């Protein structure tokens, strides 16, 4: 039995075969067990001799099976390690990362500039009341200048804001008429327009407001000059032209100088050498008063600009619809723009 069993263990080449050998020899019906069970039929003298031999044989077989099991497990592990090895020197698959939208990075760049000049960044609702969008800005119901901004009305009183200027009134109210205000507010605005290369029914604006004692027109000019040079380069000049907004008096439109050049990218600046980029002015006394500020003590300036327009000028983009049609070829060009 011993010889046979050891030979079989030696031959076994997998764990299942070993298990079968164990059953065949040592199991309940195994051949060695059979010998041990039959001991009762032996004489007193024979019993201890046979018993000793049978137990030894069992020990030897058990040890052989255990040793072989360990060998096979080891071999299996090595094979597995070999097969599943990872070549850490292979180059990885590139992970595609997204990037901020051009308008997002431009707005952040403008925010950073104004934060550096002491402005706080605020937000306001896109669904606005008629009161804040118009009335608090010196545009009472029926005022003809309301036509300057074709409006999406939701109800009689609710509308999609046509500009970020309502945030002027909201901020001044929050400050309670007693503290200076210095804020900018970026956000989406909406107008009833037919979309084409230069019009979009939804676009963005950045509002600016500075209210304090003794704020003058020259402060507005200096601030806008700093903005224009930081955005477009130190060689740019600005010029203010008279204009009209019901919520500022006097009102201005600001142009920046641009190189007169022929060919792509400069087309917006073909003729005069100046291009309009924003509107602004001194906050109208009525607006200050409605928001709780005494116009005899406080003065202020405000301005509103369109990031799309600025981006179009800065990067030579010829169609405003590029910002909103999510063509990846367009968008990824500007992931590292500055
Ligand atoms: N709200 C004006 C517009 O959308 C821009 C503006 C802002 C003008 C602040 C003056 C002061 O056209």
UniProtKB/TrEMBL annotation:
GO terms for molecular function: phenylalanine-tRNA ligase activity. Keywords: Aminoacyl-tRNA synthetase, ATP-binding, Coiled coil, Cytoplasm, Ligase, Magnesium, Metal-binding, Nucleotide-binding, Protein biosynthesis. It holds the Pfam family Phe_tRNA-synt_N. Its cofactor is Mg(2+). It catalyses: tRNA(Phe) + L-phenylalanine + ATP = L-phenylalanyl-tRNA(Phe) + AMP + diphosphate + H(+). Residues 102-333 form the Aminoacyl-transfer RNA synthetases class-II family profile domain. Residues 1-22, 58-85 form a coiled coil. Binds 2 magnesium ions per tetramer. Mg(2+) binds at residue 249. Its EC number is 6.1.1.20. Its main location: cytoplasm. CDD domains: PheRS_alpha_core (cd00496). It is found in: Cytoplasm. The keyword Lipoprotein does not apply. Belongs to the class-II aminoacyl-tRNA synthetase family. Phe-tRNA synthetase alpha subunit type 1 subfamily. Tetramer of two alpha and two beta subunits. This is Phenylalanine--tRNA ligase alpha subunit.
């Amino acid at each position: 039995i011993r010889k046979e069993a050891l030979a079989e263990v030696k031959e076994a080449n997998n764990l299942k075969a070993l298990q079968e050998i164990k059953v065949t020899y040592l199991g309940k019906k195994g051949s060695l067990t059979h010998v041990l069970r039959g001991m009762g039929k032996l004489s007193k003298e024979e019993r201890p001799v046979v018993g000793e031999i049978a137990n030894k044989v069992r020990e030897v077989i058990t040890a052989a099976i255990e040793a072989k099991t360990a060998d096979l497990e080891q071999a299996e592990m090595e094979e597995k390690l070999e097969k599943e090895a990872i070549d850490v020197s292979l180059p990885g698959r590139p992970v595609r990362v997204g990037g901020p939208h051009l308008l997002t990075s431009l707005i952040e760049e403008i925010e950073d500039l104004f934060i550096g000049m002491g402005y706080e960044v605020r937000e306001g609702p896109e669904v606005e009341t008629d009161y804040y969008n118009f009335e608090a800005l010196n545009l009472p119901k029926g005022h003809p200048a309301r036509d300057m901004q074709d409006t999406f009305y939701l109800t009689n009183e609710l509308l999609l804001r046509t500009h970020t200027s309502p945030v002027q009134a909201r901020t001044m109210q929050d400050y309670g008429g007693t503290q200076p205000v210095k804020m900018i507010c970026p956000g989406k605005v909406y107008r009833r327009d037919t979309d084409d290369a230069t019009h979009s029914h939804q676009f963005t604006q950045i509002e600016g407001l500075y209210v304090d004692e003794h704020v003058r027109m020259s402060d507005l000019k200096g601030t806008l000059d700093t903005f224009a040079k930081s955005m477009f380069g130190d060689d740019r000049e600005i010029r203010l032209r008279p204009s009209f907004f019901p919520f500022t008096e006097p009102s201005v439109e600001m142009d920046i100088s641009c190189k007169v050049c022929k060919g792509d990218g400069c087309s917006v600046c073909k003729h005069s050498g100046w291009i309009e980029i924003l509107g602004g002015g001194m906050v109208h006394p009525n607006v200050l008063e409605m928001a709780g500020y005494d116009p005899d003590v406080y003065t202020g300036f405000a301005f509103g600009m369109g990031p799309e327009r600025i981006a179009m000028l800065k990067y030579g983009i010829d169609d405003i619809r590029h910002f909103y049609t999510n063509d990846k070829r367009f968008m990824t060009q500007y992931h590292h723009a500055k």
